[in-house]
Write a structure and sequence with these properties.
By secondary structure, this protein is mainly α. It is 80% helix and 0% strand. The longest helix is centred in the N-terminal third of the chain and has 42 residues. The termini are close together. 49% of the residues are buried. The structure holds aspartic acid (ASP). Aspartic acid binds next to α20.
Length: 446
């Protein structure tokens, strides 16, 4: 996405997003104030604003399946590499799963406590649901599917009968299961044919990143259109809800960053949290300013190896994989966003469904691309699964730059925490090896 910024002459994308957000909101508020319930306003929202928003959402949905499929296969193949697998791989997986689950849980507890999405009147909600239903058949069918599922079905449905049908129905977890199995098998049979397949997956992944780069350039216009449409219908209430949402998300990420990470560094890595923070500082600043784990990867590797003294074979494995697979901030944000929008649209999620959201977000942290806005397709897809109107993404997009900066910082810091934790007890780099490796050192191309 740095691409999007550098090649785009004029204003950087995040400023355009902010302008789109503020412009769409102000116009919508004016329309709501002066022309609520007029025919011409209904025509503009139905035939101009809503289709623009829908187009953007469709472009995002279009990328979900190929992105998740290729990213997961590449992730598994990387772990499965005989040279990297074994002790380091096992410990990495254990910590990724544990810390990400903890992160999402903190997020879900925060949304349940603060309830940032509640506060609309029944009338306004009914209006919103009616609009959402009008514009998306998929929302309706996903709602129906969610209602028809029993707990056992939910578990059984993780295994798709037909992966193509699962992809067509936007059944993300089944697609992920299929991709994981595919990746494991591809790792075990290493011959020319499977090597080519993995290379092709890398190609699909790179192409998806390029497409996200293009799609995200449309975001300012889509944000303006979607915000206009919603605020024209709802007025100021929406904005008040949004402020609570941002505060909840930033607060939950703050707890993870300032409490969970230092504790892990102290207890699991047996290091001083302050020294860790000092060592990680360049990566933290880069992550905050680029909003991309992948773009930060070279700095992350430099911090791990040179400033935190993590053995190179550990840092290369953990940080490279972590840039796409270990996303504490993203997974937490996905959970917060989904629950917020569920509250906003008054979609009741039972405890069992919330646990399912947790699982999806943990896997979703692996499936999201390490680029600005990389988690948006995953969020859109989880929303659909639970019958929550995906139009709600408009709220998130408007403030996404700030939240993306925060969650990328948590993601990258999480990679460095993980590398120090996994490195504990690993023998230090043998001097000869370190020199040889330093000579042929090559940073992964991202
Ligand atoms: N921007 C995030 C990252 O690169 C991904 C996301 O949550 O959108 O880590």
């Amino acid at each position: 996405m740095s691409d999007a910024r550098s090649k785009n002459k004029g204003l950087p994308l995040h400023w355009k997003m902010l302008i789109g957000f503020i412009g769409g909101t102000l116009l919508g508020l004016c329309a709501n104030f002066f022309a609520a319930d007029t025919q011409w306003l209904a025509t503009i929202t139905t035939y101009v604003a809503d289709p623009i928003g829908q187009l953007f959402l469709r472009l995002l949905f279009m990328l979900v399946v190929p992105l998740v499929f290729s990213a997961l296969i590449l992730g598994v193949v990387e772990i499965g590499d005989p040279k990297s697998l074994g002790r380091i791989g096992g410990r990495t997986l254990f910590w990724v799963a544990t810390v990400t689950t903890l992160a999402v849980s903190i997020g879900l507890v925060a949304v349940n406590l603060v309830k940032p999405g509640t506060g609309l009147s029944a009338e306004q909600r009914a209006k919103l649901m009616e609009e959402a239903g009008k514009h998306s058949d998929r929302v309706a069918s996903a709602t129906e599917a969610a209602h028809n599922l029993s707990g056992l079905d939910v578990l059984l449905n993780i295994v798709p009968r037909n992966p193509i049908a699962a992809a067509a129905n936007n059944d993300l977890i089944a697609v992920m299961f299929f991709a994981l199995m595919f990746g494991i098998a591809a790792t075990l049979i290493r011959n020319r044919a499977t090597e080519h397949f993995v290379l092709a997956c890398q190609g699909v992944y790179d192409i998806c990143l390029k497409l996200i780069d293009w799609v995200i350039r449309l975001a300012p216009y889509a944000v303006a259109a979607m915000l206009f449409s919603v605020t024209a219908k709802l007025g100021l209430d929406v904005l008040l809800l949004l402020a609570k949402f941002v505060a909840t998300a930033v607060g939950a990420m703050g707890v993870h960053f300032a409490l969970v990470f230092p504790l892990l560094v102290w207890l699991a890595a047996r290091r001083s949290p302050l020294q860790f923070l000092r060592g990680a500082q360049p990566a933290i600043v880069t992550a905050f300013s680029t909003s991309s784990s992948s773009a930060t990867l070279p700095t992350t590797l430099m911090c791990a190896e040179e400033r935190l003294g993590v053995p190179r074979r550990v840092s290369r494995f953990v940080c490279t994989l972590g840039a796409t697979a270990n996303m504490n901030g993203t997974a937490m944000f996905e959970g917060i966003a989904v629950l917020f929008l569920a509250q906003f649209y008054n979609v009741e999620l039972s405890l069992a469904q919330q646990v399912m959201v947790l699982g999806l977000c943990v896997v979703g942290g692996i499936g999201a691309a390490g680029v600005p806005g990389g988690s948006l397709p995953v969020i859109a897809s989880i929303l659909l699964m639970f019958g929550i109107p995906a139009e709600g993404l408009a709220f998130i997009l408007g403030v996404d730059r700030l939240l993306d900066m925060c969650r990328t910082t948590v993601n990258v810091t999480g990679d460095l925490v993980l590398s120090t934790v996994v490195a504990r007890g690993e023998p230090a780099e043998a001097e000869g090896t370190a020199d040889i490796e330093a000579g042929e050192r090559e940073l992964p191309a991202h």
